[in-house]
Design a protein that fits this description.
six-stranded mixed sheet, ABC transporter transmembrane region fold, Rossmann fold, four-stranded antiparallel sheet, 18 helices
């Protein structure tokens, strides 16, 4: 274990330095404020270090009262010094508060920029990444990553740099006013303290990394379970989910306890070093006073300087630990930013220009994983105003066609063309503006019905949104709700039935009104009566668009201009409904089976 930690430390330190460098653009955006804050920091520390110097003069003045000073001077001089003492105290407070106020914009602006950049990057990552991610883990990493930027800036500007500035100033005073051994003791104490702190903190950091990993895992398990609340209830698995969550928290607790106990060891070691250093300094100063080489004010000055130095130095140990913890937190969000974007626009990619809306698949092959091909040489054309339907057993690759047309993935070979333009040669934004989809599983935002409807076209008028709802046969249902269009649909739209969510999806695609339409089992969650009513609306909508229909119910695609029958990633039959029935092969078998199922369902009904 020690060998593992030893070999990983340089890589971890290198990553920390890289991550700190990546923060610079966020900070340099506010370079004026940063420079002003640093100036205020230096002025505050000058005032802070000036306080014990004035206090020394006060002590010496009072100690010499009645011997080297006459009564008039003894009254005037201390008052002047007391006023200077108060002015320095006030200046220290003023410049510290100025530094805090000015730097606040830098801290929170950097958090803002990083959070925005991470979310933007997550939106750019491929569907493959989002199908594999855990929402709880990601949200926790983003939260900790944004806070880590604020924390690092806070530690640097409010703790590390002030302590360093104060150390330099104290060292200058000691070298200028006192014998060399005072400076040697101070430097030795500080260096031993820093070396001890760094070595022990690096040793115990793996506990913190493990805590972070387990914390994200526990959060992911909790969120995943709550998102699948109904599934948990269906299988009566509350105890199972709680046990899984509890096992992760048990591991987290053990790592947390080890982290805390090792921190106590570190604190005690730091206390020993500071106590020894202070004791040696005070003995030297005391000997100087007894020998008459130093005044009583010098003893007070040395003691005050050491306390002023070692108190923040004590906190510096905590700050270093927190900085390492924060860098560990930052590492997670930087790993997110380092995720390679799988589907990218080519340099200089042009906007998709829709002229007729013809869609063409040319010998398209694709595999989600190299050892498991999904599509094999798929070719077909959807001409303007035509409706092409794709049917076949589950796993045949039907929905993959829609994902490739949207360019959620790039094809392995072949190409997909729209009006003669390859989809991988145009911008993704313009491509997706031209396509509308009614997915098989509609997921809604936990917002109002109106918000979810308007999502297809945020600038649409209320009249247009209501008209789309009417065409999707959901307007009357919405009007019956207590809050109408302002009704909240719940997490993922769970307050609505599957059929109601599907009607919202249909209304959205009607509102968007793109030249190319995809219906992926668009009426699978509707009853027969609703399906007939909405199918008429969809048929009218399809007349002016190039339409790809992925269907399970064959009765919904009998009017298609061409039906593609897929099996194991290949097109095994193609033609119109009547032509395919006449062949009496796979499509005819599927049709006969569904007719029997509907007859049985009607009899049971």
């Amino acid at each position: 274990m020690k060998h593992l930690l030893y070999t990983r430390a340089p890589e971890t330190q290198r990553q920390d330095l890289q991550n700190l460098k990546r923060m610079l653009p966020y900070i340099w955006t506010y370079k004026g404020r940063v420079l002003f804050a640093l100036l205020a920091l230096i002025l505050a520390k000058l005032a802070t270090v000036g306080v014990p110097l004035i206090f020394k003069d006060i002590v010496d003045a009072l100690d010499n009262h009645g011997t080297s000073l006459n009564i008039q001077n003894s009254l005037v001089l201390p008052i002047t010094l007391f006023l200077a003492y108060g002015a320095l105290r006030l200046s220290s407070s003023l410049f510290n508060e100025l530094r805090d106020a000015v730097f606040a914009r830098v801290r929170y602006g950097a958090m803002h920029q990083l959070s925005h950049q991470v979310l933007e990057h997550l939106y750019r990552l491929s569907l493959r990444f989002h199908l594999e991610r855990r929402t709880g883990n990601i949200s926790r990493d983003i939260e900790r990553g944004a806070m880590s930027v604020s924390s690092i800036l806070n530690y640097m500007v409010f703790n590390i740099l002030p302590t360093l500035a104060e150390f330099i100033m104290v060292a200058f005073i000691l070298l200028h006013k006192y014998e060399l051994h005072f400076t040697v003791i101070t430097f030795a104490t500080v260096f031993v303290y820093i070396g001890f702190t760094f070595s022990v903190t690096n040793w115990r950091m793996h506990y913190r990394h493990r805590m972070n990993e387990l914390d994200s895992r526990a959060s992911g398990q909790a969120v995943d379970g709550l998102l699948n609340y109904e599934t948990v209830k269906y299988f009566n698995n509350e105890a199972f989910e709680l046990q899984r969550y509890n096992e992760t928290l048990d591991e987290w607790e053990r790592s947390a306890v080890k982290s805390q106990t090792s921190m106590s060891l570190l604190n005690f070691g730091q206390g020993i070093i500071i106590a020894v250093g202070l004791t040696l300094i005070m003995i030297s100063a005391g000997q100087g006073v007894v020998a008459g080489q130093l005044s009583l004010g010098d003893l007070v000055l040395v003691n005050t300087l050491m306390l002023q130095l070692f108190i923040p130095l004590g906190f510096l140990g905590i700050i270093y630990r927190m900085l390492k913890h924060t860098l560990a937190d930052m590492q997670q969000v930087m790993l997110l930013l380092n995720k390679e974007v799988e589907v990218k626009d080519e340099t200089g990619a042009s906007e998709l220009k829709i002229r007729r809306g013809e869609v063409r698949f040319e010998q398209v092959s694709f595999a989600y994983q190299a050892d498991r091909p999904i599509l094999h040489g798929i070719s077909f054309t959807i001409r303007p105003g035509e409706k092409v339907a794709v049917v076949g057993p589950s796993g045949a690759g039907k929905s993959t066609l829609a994902r490739l047309l949207f360019r959620f993935y790039d094809v392995d070979s072949g190409r997909i063309m729209i009006d003669g333009q390859a989809v991988n040669k145009v911008t993704q934004d313009s491509l997706r503006r031209a396509i509308g989809i009614v997915p098989q599983d509609t997921v809604l935002f936990n917002e109002s019905i109106y918000y979810n409807l308007s999502y297809a076209k945020p600038d649409a008028s209320r009249e247009d949104i209501i008209q789309a709802a009417k065409l999707a046969h959901i307007h009357e249902l919405i009007e019956e709700l207590p809050q109408g269009y302002d009704s909240i649909v719940g997490e993922r739209g769970l307050k609505l039935s599957g059929g109601e969510k599907q009607r919202v999806a249909i209304a959205r695609v009607i509102l968007k009104n793109p030249p190319i339409l995809i219906f992926d089992e668009a009426t699978s969650s509707l009853d027969s009566h609703s399906e007939q009513a909405i199918s008429q609306s969809l048929a009218e909508l399809s007349q002016q668009h190039s339409t790809l229909v992925i269907a399970h119910r064959l009765s919904t695609i009998v009017d298609a201009d061409e039906i593609l029958v897929m099996e194991r990633g290949r097109i095994v039959e193609r033609g119109r409904h009547a032509e395919l029935l006449a062949k009496k092969t796979l499509y005819a078998q599927m049709w006969a089976l569904q007719q029997q199922e509907e007859e049985v369902s009607d009899l049971q009904g």
